[in-house]
Amino acid sequence: MMHETETAEILSSTHDGKGIASTEGKKVFVRGAIIGETVKFIRRKKRRNYDEAELIEVIRRSKDRVDPRCQFYNQCGGCSLQHLSPNSQRDLKEGVLRDNLARIGSVTPSIWLKPIFNNDDGEWNYRRRARIAVKDVEKKGRVLVGFREKFAPFVVDMNNCEILSPPVNNLIKPLSNLIESLSIRREIPQIEVAVGENDTELVFRVLIPPSDDDKVKLVSFAKQNQLRLSIQTGGMDSVKLLFAKSPDEALRYSHTKFDIINEFDSTDFIQVNGVINSLMVAQVIELLELRENHKVIDLFCGIGNFTLPVAKYVSEVIGIELLDALIKRGEHNANLNNINNVKFLCKDLNKIDNTYKNFQCDRLILDPSRNGALDVVNNIKYFNPKKIIYVSCHPGTLARDANILVTGAAMPASTVNPAIIQYRGREVKFAGERIFDPWTITIANDTKQSLRQPFEAWLDAMNNKADNSSIALNPQDYQREITVKHLDRNDEALPGGIIQLNGAFPINMSEVALQYAQNDIIEEFTVTFQYQDYEVIN
């Protein structure tokens, strides 16, 4: 089927460099297009609420456009912003952050920090962690190694990568030749890359174990290219080292400024950009304004990326992480650096309850995954920090969590409707009925809909959607008292800050949009309550 070429002006942009046009009332995401440009494009993927398109031609070119350095950029899905200059990339990301904070979080920062970046041509060959696809393509008669295409699951036919750290950037073609020689060439779906300051490790994911002859070839390749090489036959715990010039020496990176060395495993999470990570850690420590008597808690601490440098300045640091393997690595790194004022704990930070009541601290560091730290910010009272540093890899969840940290619900409103009395032909107004406005709260949705389901059940009790019947026949069966507290920084209710809604029940629950185009925005829904009256109870 032939796709028609269309022309449109790019009106806005996504965080990953897709230009957004609007045609016939529908958004079209054009990969590689820039705000203000007029472009020709072809729709490649049609969705209900938006379409994805391939850029064909730039008719009116933006001043911010540059020629991509990588010859495979237009096809490869490994990166998305090479058509923008470094300064324009930073402007784009800052714009997305500003938009998310305002639109999702209803937050306006009073101070904006200057962006941190590597001045030494740091936009190239920076990536020290990556997952590379492998595919034996019969039609081409060889094995392809690289990233997947932008609009298809196929592996790009490439021979180098401009963003991968040395020596992996120039090993694409040699890896292809190696895998072609193996008996399991069709049983290798991917290769994990982990680059340390001292060594580079490749982890071959295999569906069946390599033969003895395969192992000889793999070891020979590793020796020739001075690599560590591991085989992964199943989950993360199945990774086995096949060759290393120094098997007892782990991969490592350093924080030179703080005299810290962090050792890590090929499967551990680390920041992909080593230079930016060092600059970021230094900035975090500066912003924390640490004192010798401070207690600091580092949530989602990983292997101790922030934990250990911070420990140099304070009396106590507690690092908390979900994965036991990362906790053990953090403890190892503390011992490696002779740091004895750090404690690492393995706990689920998505389930914050009163077991955290003894975790109050002076400073709190948050460095969560893309999902954010919703349960932490909803229960920030258990930590009661004087300062919070939130390091985020997703502007949408950052905006959501920031909203919870700095805003709250509104006090309910009420009105006295005047009663009009006719007296000697004149209208005289007297105080009449007092009307209480509905009260609305906003709730950040969770993936299992566990926060939404109780409200669904409450509404069903009042009016069952299946047969229009009512389970709760009497008002006392569905009306509740709702207590709303306005708390200070010490988790104490402010004077006059506790109100009680009497006879409350939900009358409306808003939709949750099921739109893939909104997958970078945290789902929220509102619940509106009606009530008989309210009273201030303190």
User: Percentage of helical residues?
Assistant: 10-25%
Spatial order of the strands in the main sheet?
1-5-6-4-3-2
CATH topology of the largest domain: Rossmann fold
Question: In DSSP terms, counting alpha (H) and pi (I) runs of 4 or more, how many helices?
Answer: 10
The outline comes out as globular
Question: What's the CATH class of the largest domain, please?
Answer: Alpha Beta
Arithmetic mean pLDDT = 88
* CATH superfamily (homologous) name of the largest domain: Vaccinia Virus protein VP39
Q: Which consecutive residue ranges, at least 5 long each, have pLDDT under 50?
A: none
Computed CA radius of gyration, to the nearest angstrom: 29 Å
* Corresponding CATH architecture of the largest domain: 3-Layer(aba) Sandwich
Largest sheet: 6 strands, mixed
Q: Tell me the distance between the termini.
A: 70 Å
- The count of strands amounts to 26
Structural class: alpha+beta
The assembly state of the depicted protein chains is single chain
How many domains? 4
